[in-house]
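Rotation project, supervised by the postdoc (A.L.). Task for the rotation student: set up a whole-complex structure prediction and record inputs and outputs verbatim in this book. Inputs entered:
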Amino acid sequence: MPPTSKSVLVIGVGGLGGPALLTLAAGGVGRLVLVDCDAVETSNLNRQPLFTEADLGRRKVAAAAERLRALHPDLELEPLDQRFDAAGAEALIRGVDIVVDGSDNFATKFLASDAATRCGKILVHGGVLRSTAQLLTVVPGQTGCLRCLFEGPPPPGQVPSCAEAGIVGAMSGFAGALMGAEALRLAAGERGAYAGRMLIFDGRSGRSRLVLVRRRPGCAACAGSLELSDAAAPACEAAPPAAVATPAAGTAPAGPAGSPG
Amino acid sequence: MPVTVLIPSPLRELAGRQREVAAQGATVRQVLADLVASHPGLRGALTDDRGEPRRHLGLFLNDLDVRAAGGLDAPVADGDRLALVPALAGGAPRLGEEGIARWARQLLVPGFGAAGQERLLASRVRVIGADAVAGAALLYLAQAGVGTLWIDDPEAAAPADAGGWLLGPKAVGQLRGEAAVEALRPFSSLIEISPYPIGGVPTAVLIVATSSAQSLATAEVARRTGVPHVVVEADAEGGLVATIPVGAPCYACSRGAAGAGRPPAPAATGLAALAAHELLMLIADPSLQAGRRFELIRGVPSMRATARLSGCACSPPPPASDPDGAGAGPG
Amino acid sequence: MTSPRRLDLRAHACPMTWVKTCIALERLAAGEELEVWLSAGEPVDSVPRTAAEEGHQVVSLSPLDGGAPSGWRLVLRKGMAEARLALP
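Outputs recorded:
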């Protein structure tokens, strides 16, 4: 059933957001809102399927919108060349039905989850690290949110290891396409495949795990009492590595399967 | 304990169909000489008319390029693994500054690295099928730096083939393979992208055929010619990805009861990305040689190792050097 | 083709500093040393730590002539080949 009446916000148009957008566009979604504040860099071209070599140096959102329109001339697109931040998050989210978080840093991921929860909108979360992908759908009021599982992003000042920047395009492509497909399911009124359970997929071993994400009693984000913040969010010029968070002790089992932890 | 020499698939027929051969020697040069002495069929492939190892033969000792470790006179130790990597005409491509900048992020992934990237650059991948599902796989193979990408699809593009990841409405009516080549080239000028040349010998194959019959037939050809391959069959629920390294259970054994035969769901492009990842790992990382299959059902991938169905023609014959027939084949 | 034993990476930012260090280490044999010059800030904060996490030894880290602002000299010793992630 084509979800042509629904609108989806996609945060980030790169390694995760790109394949998510391509999947959503092909699936006939009604309206797509794209938000990203970076320019296309050389090292993006190993894994971001919306950008050709001719797009180097261009604003990502402009290049992404142009590419999507060339493939789908009738697509309704709202490209926003701006940062997804605490000040504007809620307004953006209230204007759509579903949020897909293709961002590549912890701060934005938690902001997206907090803001979607406050607005009562479904969020599809995804992250990739080397050969591991994780996917979770947050249904406010029903399932746990990102903070029910992880409590919060790593403290500011803890610089991620450079080696964590490693990523093979096809793995982020797989994750992003699954995120897009999940959003299409949700737009069609179905229950999400990752609603309340996080899929952790290790591309080397090929193993999948599903981790239940229940509402954590006392979660401030779910209670709506958490202030949205941009703490530790990177500046738009930098290109931080894609982010995969590690569960807080006492909640889910630590670390994705097969990774060195 | 001698040195283990890893024989690349195009040369296995000349080495008694073996994937690994034991050889003796104190240096790389001596090991190669011993290898050729015990498998004379390899002489022409490995040595020139003066008996010297061919200049463009890639050699990796424990995954380190021999050229960086002292060349042919580098010492070897018992238990070392020497991998042979046949080069294209003109020599194996080296990873230059432009490539490092382009592929920086994947160079950091365990199993890839500069050695893995050079294997990708040296590979020739034939992709059978260029429909909307294949488009996603083609994009990721091109962006990852597969050195030669041959696209094999003589069908005409229909409206259903447009609106995927690669072909827009303007491609309708063109030949799918040619349209895909044209659409893909802007993504990477660092590799060669062309229609599949008749008689071209690939080093790996990706099959995104539009029918089970075509998948089975083309997979069988790949198997018989000793080429590792990955097969994608997408359907309305998700679909199947089967990874078949050389010597692993064949596609017919791997697929089980797959495919409802209905048109692919939007999740099918995810399947194509997974297939591309499997193929890239197969090429970049020689340690991954087990056959396996994935099913993607409602967004959740489930993997299991493949196993030969008894009596299937894909069982390898006993090695020529093992007259009792009790030698174990791979897989 | 000989592999470089000293790299001046002061013109690069993360993660390219690590990428180049990683590639140079890859082309060495276990036990061999690599000298890398890094600029202050994120590169010198993260590259030694990453190298240690990846199984290599930090032999020394000292300011270049001219003091810390002109950069740092990091000497690494390549560790033994990393164990492959186990395939079950």
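Student's summary: Residues 322-331 of chain B have pLDDT under 50 and may be disordered.
Supervisor addendum: Chain B has two domains: 3-85, 97-305.
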